[in-house]
Design a protein that fits this description.
alpha+beta, eight-stranded mixed sheet, 6 helices
């Protein structure tokens, strides 16, 4: 989840420019915020449901893939709002989201023609051939080349969310316990990247631990759905006082959380509780019963939601 200041800018960026589809909304006028859920659908697949309807809710909360959640707090579209914290400053945990494409150079020309600005263009910096664009709120959007062209028909597909972690020996088992699988780990000397995928992205016939790095990289590149990228800057695990900002601290709000659908929220939370990292919200806490926010080893919020959804108390759109 990313907080956005103006959906009139952010939604067209992610739909018209990055090729995502708005599949659902949850509007809470009683609490002055609205949620938007977007995903990359296979090229040519038509989405006919109206976001905000019960039918769209049913689709969203049974989705096999992954959605990008954007949160709009009423009033932040006013010129007086100073903006959200996009991350990537000292000790920030959230790094970026990413999209894969066949040709990064052509994609960046296309983005630039659409008025998108860049943190890094493909030939700038040490790492050639990849880019970082800015979304309307200044969040970094990495543009990554697919290792095998013409395998995915979409011009762009949502491919990553990156978080920095303190200690992979704690974070990787945590996310594996939530059903994710480690697809690739790469040591770059002073930092390492780990890429984990959910079940809908995983080929159960493949032993990912036995793959060479090139093979694992290729598997990642041809995945249609996004993965969770965990970045470990070496040495942080030895610093007892080190802690990343999780995106929810006062004055540093931007990134909010990641989420998982489960069959039984209460049973899932019992298992998570045994890992000992605690909860921001227990399933029966607060005004929304039946969903929870656990903490991962770095203090990132992890939303646990019942597959099929619950009665959120949102203002629904009529399907007629």
């Amino acid at each position: 989840m990313l907080r956005i200041s103006d959906p009139k800018k952010s939604i067209p960026f992610y739909t018209d420019i990055m090729g995502m589809t708005l599949i659902d909304t949850l509007d809470f006028p009683q609490w002055n915020f609205k949620l938007f859920f977007l995903t990359t659908l296979p090229e040519g697949e038509e989405y006919t449901l109206t976001p905000g309807t019960q039918e769209a809710h049913d689709y969203m909360w049974s989705i096999e893939g992954t959605a990008l959640e954007l949160t709009f707090n009423y009033g932040t579209d006013d010129e007086s709002f100073k903006g959200y914290h996009a991350g990537n400053q000292e000790r920030d945990g959230f790094g970026h989201v990413a999209f894969n494409t066949d040709d990064v150079y052509a994609a960046c020309e296309r983005l630039e023609a659409a008025g998108v600005t860049f943190k890094k263009k493909p030939d700038e910096g040490r790492m050639k051939g990849l880019a970082f664009a800015y979304d309307p709120d200044g969040y970094w959007v990495e543009i990554v080349k697919r290792s095998e062209p013409n395998q995915i028909k979409n011009y762009f597909n949502f491919s990553q969310t990156m978080l920095r972690i303190k200690d992979p020996s704690k974070s990787i088992p945590f996310y594996e316990a939530l059903g994710m699988k480690l697809i690739r780990g790469k040591n770059y000397g002073d930092f390492s990247n780990y890429f984990l995928a959910s079940a809908s992205n995983v080929d159960e016939s493949v032993d990912y631990s036995a793959l060479s790095d090139d093979e694992a990289k290729s598997k990642l590149s041809t995945m249609f759905g996004p993965v969770l990228e965990l970045t470990h800057n070496h040495g942080t695990e030895k610093d007892e006082g080190f802690k990343h900002y999780n995106g929810n601290e006062e004055g540093r709000q931007g990134f909010g959380h990641i989420g998982f659908l489960v069959d039984d929220v209460y049973a899932a939370c019992d298992s998570i509780r045994e890992m000992g990292y605690g909860f921001k919200k227990e399933p029966d806490g607060g005004s929304m019963k039946g969903l929870a926010f656990a903490y991962d080893p770095d203090g990132y919020a992890v939303e646990i939601i019942k597959r099929g959804g619950i009665d959120f108390g949102d203002k629904k759109v009529s399907s007629e």
